[in-house]
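Dataset card, provenance and construction

Sequences and ligand SMILES were collected as paired inputs. For each pair, a complete structure of the chain with the small molecule in place was predicted and serialized as structure tokens. The example below shows a pair involving fe (ii) ion. Curators did not alter the output after generation; any descriptive sentences attached to a record were derived from the structure itself.
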Amino acid sequence: MFRPVAQIPLDYSVFKDKKSIFSWAPSGAIIFGNGAAAKTGEELKKLGVKKAVLVTDQGLVKVGIAGKVIESVKNAGIALAVYDQCEADSSVETVEKITELLDGADVVIGLGGGSSMDPAKAAAIVATNGGSIRDYQGCDKFEKAPLPIVAIPTAAGTGSECTPFAVIADRQREWKMPIGGTGIMPALAICDPELTYSLPASITAATGMDALTHAIEAYTSRCTEPISDALASQAIRLIAHAIRPAVFRGDSDKDARYDMMMGAMLGGYAFTSASLGISHCMAHPLGAQYHVPHGVANALCLPVVMEFNMGAWPERYADIAGFFGVDTYGMSVREAAKAGVDCVYELLEDMPVKPLEAYGVTEESLDRLADDAMLGGDRPNNARMTTKEDFIKLYRKVMTLKKEK
Ligand SMILES: [Fe+2]
């Protein structure tokens, strides 16, 4: 059966300097490479799985990706139930429907982006702990080990295949609930870059910018440590070089798709330990209140947040310039840091993402958005302290980016 994931509590209460102790709890296993998804059944069989539940969405059913995984699992002689109605920003209600299917299952498979993998994780908690997913908001709020999770990402973005986190939308409260605990780190991640070949440019851009945000926020948070630094820096390098070819010729540039999926995965591991920053604090209310896709929200917030944070840790932002390929020889640290921020502004200019105004965000929206951003769990981990007034100014600046064409 599955190798248990170490149940080490998540702890972001300390700045991980050289005097502090940090823990590292890796996932069960990773299978990575072109064609890996077709081996899902074979791999589950090796792990002794008899009954599985697949969680996915209609889009993946239509393009045949879900069918490929279903065929692989059934050919391995494993009983399979399918929930294929996940929606963007999966909700509490979706988690309830998935949980109903989990009775007697050995494993839950999340196939898709965060909107499929996250509710699979959330249902895995409720299946063994009971109650509602609302009871488990926060870190380490569940007692019993969740059902083992297998994650198969179909976009290079969220990194949920290798994080102990899920984000579930509570539509009643217009709030995105963060749920964390090492028990929901997937026991097995099957990463197949081929599953991303048919993704349109707009989704490749949004998800890819989310992955870049994870890597940059993990590299510049107050909770960095040497292992997360190694992973985050390599994630930034890979994504910085692969995102444009993946967005603009992702149907044929297989190397770019491979590097994006690897970068997203490494970024996920990095922020599992180092946490994130205020771009995510700003992105979640934009998603919950205005349905701005998570990746679009981060794409728009990231450069503005980097510019705000830059002075708090210029050496790190100077490194980022180097990861993007800027020759920083002869520059001061501050000049190099500014060059790192400029790289991300320029990247955003090239990305096919819509501006905030397209989602109905106006000056009147900013007060409530800033209130909710203040509640973001990653705010204390951000390189620079942030007040409500800061958030209002940051949102205002984000609104000026990328005019609708
Ligand atoms: Fe994210």
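Derived descriptions for this record:
The radius of gyration is 20 Å.
The pocket of fe (ii) ion is lined by residues 158, 210, 213-214, 280, 294, 298 (CB under 6 Å).
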